[in-house]
Amino acid sequence: MFFASDNAGPVHPQIMNRLAQANTGHAMPYGNDPIMDEVRDAIRTAFEAPEAAVYLVATGTAANALALACYTQPWQTIFCSVTSHIHEDECNAPEFYAGAAKLTVVETDDKMTPEALTKAIEKHPEGNVHGAQRGPVSITQVTERGSIHSLEELNALTAVAKSYDLPVHLDGARFANALVALGCTPAEMTWKAGVDVVSFGGTKNGCMGVEAVVFFDPAKAWEFELRRKRGAHLFSKHRFLSAQMAGYMQDDLWKTTAALANDNARHLADGLRAAGATLLHKPDANMIFAKWPRRIHQKLHDAGAKYYVMDGPLEGDDPNEPLSARLVCDWSIGTEAIDQFLSYF
Amino acid sequence: MFFASDNAGPVHPQIMNRLAQANTGHAMPYGNDPIMDEVRDAIRTAFEAPEAAVYLVATGTAANALALACYTQPWQTIFCSVTSHIHEDECNAPEFYAGAAKLTVVETDDKMTPEALTKAIEKHPEGNVHGAQRGPVSITQVTERGSIHSLEELNALTAVAKSYDLPVHLDGARFANALVALGCTPAEMTWKAGVDVVSFGGTKNGCMGVEAVVFFDPAKAWEFELRRKRGAHLFSKHRFLSAQMAGYMQDDLWKTTAALANDNARHLADGLRAAGATLLHKPDANMIFAKWPRRIHQKLHDAGAKYYVMDGPLEGDDPNEPLSARLVCDWSIGTEAIDQFLSYF
Amino acid sequence: MFFASDNAGPVHPQIMNRLAQANTGHAMPYGNDPIMDEVRDAIRTAFEAPEAAVYLVATGTAANALALACYTQPWQTIFCSVTSHIHEDECNAPEFYAGAAKLTVVETDDKMTPEALTKAIEKHPEGNVHGAQRGPVSITQVTERGSIHSLEELNALTAVAKSYDLPVHLDGARFANALVALGCTPAEMTWKAGVDVVSFGGTKNGCMGVEAVVFFDPAKAWEFELRRKRGAHLFSKHRFLSAQMAGYMQDDLWKTTAALANDNARHLADGLRAAGATLLHKPDANMIFAKWPRRIHQKLHDAGAKYYVMDGPLEGDDPNEPLSARLVCDWSIGTEAIDQFLSYF
Amino acid sequence: MFFASDNAGPVHPQIMNRLAQANTGHAMPYGNDPIMDEVRDAIRTAFEAPEAAVYLVATGTAANALALACYTQPWQTIFCSVTSHIHEDECNAPEFYAGAAKLTVVETDDKMTPEALTKAIEKHPEGNVHGAQRGPVSITQVTERGSIHSLEELNALTAVAKSYDLPVHLDGARFANALVALGCTPAEMTWKAGVDVVSFGGTKNGCMGVEAVVFFDPAKAWEFELRRKRGAHLFSKHRFLSAQMAGYMQDDLWKTTAALANDNARHLADGLRAAGATLLHKPDANMIFAKWPRRIHQKLHDAGAKYYVMDGPLEGDDPNEPLSARLVCDWSIGTEAIDQFLSYF
Fold first, then answer.
1. A248, A59 in Cβ contact below 8 A?
2. What domains, with CATH codes, occur in chain A?
3. Residues B116-170: tens digit of each pLDDT
4. Fewer CB under 10 Å: which end of chain C, C or N?
5. Using CB atoms, which residue from D20, D208, D236 is nearest to C7?
6. Which of B59, B92, B102 to mutate to test the interface with D (most CBs of D within 10 A)?
């Protein structure tokens, strides 16, 4: 009954197999391994972007921080949502990599709106040397509250960015979960929607620890390579990053695992609703925020269920006080564990 | 015939097995996995340092840069050798992580001497606000020229550092190779010799991508955790770093693979000497620098041998001009490939 | 009719005289001039802080950024108000000097409240490695909206900071204006109120370009000296910073000029109210925010009056639409210019 | 008898007068003062560079660090001489402003040679992601040992830089001293010689605290303005920087004071030679390095003479042991003080 995060599950067997296969003899280090050529091709094909520059790193924070740094000057500010991972969960890594740039929160509850984004940008007038200068817009898809931007919403946000000539980054730690939920193509969710660079997540969706950074404009390629090395994120035995991503792309495994995770979440959400819990955000992908009485939390806790209780202590006087929780399903959790979880309601 | 580096070989089966074993169910992320407890214990035991703070990262550059940053203020300079990896091969990562600190080269050919170190430190008088301030001393064991500091040499260097109250970092990317060559204990080569923090390498010696940072003074623990996260080096699926290191420590595999690598190098060095090549540095561990005529380089190259030619182009007029080369042996290379290599002389 | 800022007026004659007097022969550079001894004594006496470390820099942004950097780790966040100069008007200088730390806005309109500060701090739970860590609290006195914290308000804010063991910085670019308005002592407005370091402004209040940074705990002294030098803010001909500050402290000139500025603002505020303008913030010190019809703005503009119109444009269809403006009075402006300004209403 | 530095003398009366004249009424802040227009014109005219971007800062370290930062990426290294101010005397300010870039010392005693520069650049092969990348070349004219590069030497160095497509910075803290010694034009010593940006010093040559940064390619203008603000080096009461520089440029005062300083040094050097002291570097400008017996140092010291003794303690057993000293003459020192100094020999 592990719903604490999708970053704690096992690696998919297909990926483990590719790691084992890759482990023969010597291979050129630092990204010059032949498996990386396969990965580059696979990602370019998937994104319909034959010129894209494709790189691998081992953590999502590295992907975000390095990608953003390529588009941010130290005197600029990055526009992001209040719930964004780069703002809340990266311990100033984006600021560090961008040379002490700022992050500006676009004031909405979760997903940015074009109006709120415009307002945030307008607060930083051009030509004013005293304030932080306008920098890139970073959109998180799926958001950290489990919401998905429709293609229409995405295009509306990037249109604002483009109208100010600002680059757009997509934090796709859960890119696959959004994609299968929307039923669109990778191109539609990225460069066709005005995205310049995407963090294409693997770790949360069945890999061991690998994320791709995909630049649709290859002009940033060499700068990224230098930033990655300087950030100490260039792997010598790089083939083991490549092998993970190769296994992930092979036969669209990435879509399969994402669909599994989303299905698991839907099953759990349906069960929670049926059990009388209140759902707090629309569970678009594989993340659920919901509220139910303390006494049920306590039973679940005693039974070993793992998830975050967002407000208030588990211990408390009122057994019926509703406490909200975050539940994340990964591809591996399965309906059995979910049903077991629901059985405590 | 792969002698380009020890960072390009396969992962040892014992480590692959531990990765496979670790891949069951969910585990707490970010270093809270139970395998990390095992690793911590194993390293503390190996180093006879029950209080040591032990952390894992995936690259040697990350280990060095993060470890040094914990001991360096941005207005200080790190004293290192002219051949050190931190100075030559990390694309300003140590400077980046230490907040724009400087590196000062101690002027010797390879290994620092106490005299040269003293001179370098004395050039930065205390209380002079205009110059870079004295920072930590970083020693590389094995050096990037394949030399090993004897325990006596190590103690002499740290004595200089301590006399100025400066902390000492040991870049142990090839820690195991030095240790088995010296036949000493990990404690003797680190804290008993005055080392405050060590980058304990795994990647070059049979792991997939893992290095431990070991602080003998646990006071730096929390700062390291924050720096690691901020540097984007904290793994969510951390158990797969832990599993590698657990497999590496188990039954002293790390010493076994290092001894294999050193034996391979000795076999190669003996063969080169017998074949008339000139050895340029004393090959203490698993790295050899040697010189032989261009025409033999050309034959080896045509036969697919991989290694770095240090001076001059492989193509050239004089077939007998001696060109120097770097040859690195890893644990897996084996005498067969070495003898094949030697057969071209 | 110059009301654009108090940073654009002339230097007070008493300060010009001290500069002229200082200009004889040679003086030891870099802060070792004898006038600096006089300044240190004068400021220690004024603040009743015989142990305080006192330094001079030439700009307010340097004072703020260097002072904060001494209390901020790169992985922390500085708590400040939404209108604070460090957040809005320093082009990421605080982030730069603090090694890429973050700024967190405490959500109120202008002055922080203890409740809002507590909420902002609580959003950064201790021991959570993923988020920015809690850093210093920076309070602006006078605020950038012209408001003054009463001693009670100040003590309530620092009590919150202290309850979390966080240091407190006071941005006193208009310290003197606040002090004479409150009628308190420098000690009461700083260390007695829990302030650890203050940017004690001179430039806006009659100096040429000098600010003091006063640390009530002298333990930060050497770090500040190194940070100042590294930031390129250590003057060689330092006596000309000292002379300004010496002239400023002499015979309490700093209180005299501040009182003049506040009186000018009061005269202007009274006149505006009498003329039917709407005052937007309580004008506690020397800054006024007020609203009046566009047509009067236009007349003033044509007559050469200088001040910022906040919600323009100056040109517009409706001559009676009220537009708000910021008016700042310095010590030198005088009632004549103010009455001339008011004559256009 | 003050020979410790040229940064400790008085401000020239012509400059004090301009400061006094500038002190009337209000002036637009932050570089928008009309005197800055005059300064810009004067410098463009002097340098025969009608398009040059001209900015003022208050310290030489700020001029160097900000100018270099505009031409340096964080993963690059700046090539400089072993005696350069940026390497030895700026407490890591260039590294700080350039985002943690490196400095690489070109190995000569003082002035770079084209051969040594080429060698230093070649050690950083293009396309090698592991090492620091090639960055700008910074030349110091006058060097910190008092030597001047002839125009031929300067052109030879910049030719090397240009052959690698590297930008060139000139640290001209003593620009005027070199210029009058060479008898050339500012254009000949800068853009005609391949210099891209120059720190044009004022402080050491009769100003209070002002240096100009002159970009011959105005494309860097806005970036410099943002870097200056972010570095906290943008003055609000900027007219008082402008007034200094205006006074300095007026009627070629800058050449007059430099000629005075150089003449003073020549007088002192002649006297020292006559008195039997050994001159260590060729005293091309206003700085002298010489050696004479300890007992004379002691007499001079007792008589209040101020200068740096470079080697060994003033106190010592052997009264005849020669100790070397650095003596710097500014424009104001005059022959009387020099002759008094020489009378102790």
1. no
2. 13-251 (3.40.640.10), 254-342 (3.90.1150.10)
3. 999 999 999 999 999 999 999 999 999 999 999 999 999 999 999 999 999 999 9
4. C
5. D236
6. B92
